[in-house]
Amino acid sequence: MHKLLKKIIWILITLLGVAAVTGIALNRGEHINALWFVAAALSVYSIAYRFYASWIAAEVLTVDDTRATPAERLDNGKDFVPTNRWIVFGHHFAAIAGPGPLVGPTLAAQFGYLPGTLWILFGAVLGGCVQDMVTLFLSTRRDAKSLGQMARDELGPLGGTAALVGTFSIMIILIAVLGLVVVNAMKHSPWATATVAATIPIAMIVGFYMRFFRPGQVLEASALGVILLLLSVVAGGWIDNHPELRKLFDHEGLMLAWCVMAYGFAAAILPVWLLLAPRDYLSTYIKVGTITLLAVAIIILQPEVKMPAMTQFIDGTGPIFGGKLFPFVFITIACGAISGFHSLIASGTTPKLLINERDIRMIGYGAMLLESFVALMAMIAATVLDPGVFFAINSPAGVVGLAEVDAVAKISSWGFPVTVEQMQLLANQMGESTLFARTGGAPSLAVGMASIFGSAFGEKLLALWYHFAIMFEAIFILTTLDAGTRVGRFMLQDMLGNFWPKMGETSWAPSVVFTSALVVGGWGYFLYIGVIDPNGGVNILWPLFGIANQLLAAIALCVATGILVKSDKFKYAWVTGVPLLWLVVITSSAAWEKIASDDVRIGFFAGAEDLAAKLAAGSFTPEKAKIAPQLIVNLQLDAWLTLFFVALLWLIVFDMLRVSYRYLVGKSVPPLAEVSYSPSRLIEEWVRD
Amino acid sequence: MLNNIKAAWRLLRRLSGDDAYERYLEHFARHHNVDCLHACDRPLSKKDFFKQWQDEKWHGVKRCC
Fold first, then answer.
1. Residue A581 forms part of a structural domain
2. Number of structural domains, chain A?
3. Burial bucket for residue A476 (CB in 10 Å: 0-12, 13-18, 19+)
4. Block means of pLDDT (10 residues each) for chain A, length 689 residues?
5. Nearest CA in chain B to A473
6. Which residue among B55, B57, B64 sits closest to A96, beta carbon to beta carbon?
7. Is B3's Cβ below 8 Å from some Cβ in A?
């Protein structure tokens, strides 16, 4: 009876899932309730988690709950600590969930809601979750080694170096694009700028409190910080209304970009307790709180999705970024479906806390499901806006024209009616002077969130909700920015230490300043170009970031596939091999288009040639003629960078195939680095916890 | 009900690291000085422990995109 009931329940869940997904997919021309998206997601996730993830854990990985984990064997009470699985889940999720899944889906909404939604759902359950879970498992079996170390041990020095270089480059591009998103949200918005600026001293107050005033009282200090942050949103509004004060925070994008760079540099050299650690606490609370609030609001309000299932921009002519549906929807969604960056957390950090291999499914696979759900909510928040409004906010001036009248005419001509008055009213409601051309995803997401929150929790507070949403995004974008700059600094110090040991000392001041400046200079350059680019910069940087991120995922899947083959599990190698193949196909074809396309909005070289020709013909305004040479050099650099990424990808894929082939024909390969079995003594003790 | 609130509070303290020092003391009591008579190691003070804990927590890649 019990078994039968279970079967019936799973059949019902499957039917609901099929109905919701087909409903979403086949709906044409009518508004569709966002609750269908939630239903589709929950049923797809439950089925995948219950059946596919269990099968991978039991058959492919053969997790062994009697085996002692590194946390147990190497327990030192500091970084290796056996920890309750829900706590590990919390830490792991907080670490993997960044701004990527919020920005990507918002940009991909230019294709309509359907392509992005499908990839968020199925990319996650078949690709992203598998990558995270398998990497977590492999690292757990190898004393919590990092992805780079595992690549070196299992494939060879080439794989290890590729992982290191890949991680470093993705970090640079990622920080630049995130910086650009924040700058675009703050430019000429005194309210947003003042609020974001206030987060810095607030973090420092919290830092002092935790370090000196009441050492270790993390919750007290965080509660204080969260209250101050909420006050800073309100205070931003006062500043915005003050005729003198508002001028202090009213800046051009370029000026703000310099500030972000100065901030990044300061954060990389200041001690962690002063800025980085307290900011991270605050951003984690705000992030988890806001995401929960958004989910609750969507369920209460059940908003209608107004964006069509697919727009005409699947042909590659989209205003936000150029490029056809294939492969650019996959590159753009990136983190919400599969994110290579997660493999850095799943190896090295999380395995040090894991009590039992049995929990690998819940933590590795489960946390990524939740991340995919966050991406889906971002997609909902972007598509509940009137499409005309969505495109007016996100289309750069270089595409639709600088004058508001031109912009609305152009956008309306695409079949997405919008008026200047409508945009002005919306801007007034949100407490902004204008919402046109705020490319990057953060402002349109904030408008979407504000309208959802506003309808669910009080219409009058729209401006407050909008700036709360901006603060929410900015605070953890800045956390990624300073954490990333610092990690980049450590990696660079490590690399330079091979040539000049003194440089490798992480506390030697000249080395700290030199490497921090180099890292900030790296992403600062791309940020600078992104800000001066009249096409918004996001159209260049985001695809580059997507390619780099998917490259890192491919490296992780290569390591996993190679190990599966070496563990005599060739028949299961498709579990990681198929997502790998797909990533190779999408990154290679996206890279090919970015390099070779004749379309000036897609191909980097084509774009550079077009600019050069126009510059030579003298058809630019003097202002644009001044920046054109820099844009040309940058486009060429981007092309070479893309080529480098894709070469790195193929190199590591061939390395993995070489190792696998050698193993299968019985030639010598690097031995499996798995630590030998030792029985766990924690099982009984921790079950109760 | 009260038990649930207590459990939630414990979870929150654990997640945020608010109870890290208490857990460290427990770990210390369990693993060190089990049978020492004279020269026992002393656990770190709360302030020193927190310093170390915070600095170590921030070594390596801790946040994604």
1. yes
2. 1
3. buried
4. 91 95 89 95 97 97 96 85 90 90 94 97 98 97 93 90 85 91 92 95 94 90 94 95 94 96 92 89 89 90 94 95 95 93 90 95 97 96 95 92 94 96 94 89 89 79 91 88 88 89 88 95 96 88 92 94 96 98 96 95 95 93 91 95 94 94 96 94 57
5. B65
6. B64
7. no
Residue A402 lies in a domain: yes
Query: Whole-angstrom Cα distance, residue A540 to residue A527?
Result: 11
Q: Which residues of B touch A87 (CB under 8 A)?
A: 11, 14-15
Q: Give the span between the Cα atoms of B39 and B45, in whole angstroms.
A: 18
Mean pLDDT of all residues belonging to chain B: 80
Contacts of A269 (CB under 8 A, 6+ apart): A512, A513, A516
Q: Is residue A476 part of a domain?
A: yes
How far apart are alpha carbons A646 and A648 in whole angstroms?
5
CB distance from B32 to chain A under 8 Å? no
Q: Which helix (H) or strand (E) holds A203?
A: helix A190-208
Q: CA of A77 to nearest chain B CA: how many angstroms apart?
A: 6
Q: Is A479 within 8 Å of B63 when comparing Cβ atoms? A: yes
Candidate from B23, B47, B60 with C-beta closest to A349: B60
The model's pLDDT over B26-43, given as tens digits with 9 standing for 90+, comes to: 888 877 765 555 556 788
**Is residue A211 a part of any domain in this protein?**
no
Which among B12, B50, B64 is the nearest to A98, CB-wise?
Answer: B64
Q: Kindly determine whether residue B58 and residue A91, on different chains, have CB atoms separated by under 8 Å.
A: no
Is the ipTM, as predicted for this complex, more than 0.90?
no
Give the structural domain span for A512. Answer: 2-85+111-188+251-667
- Three-state secondary structure call for residue A341: coil
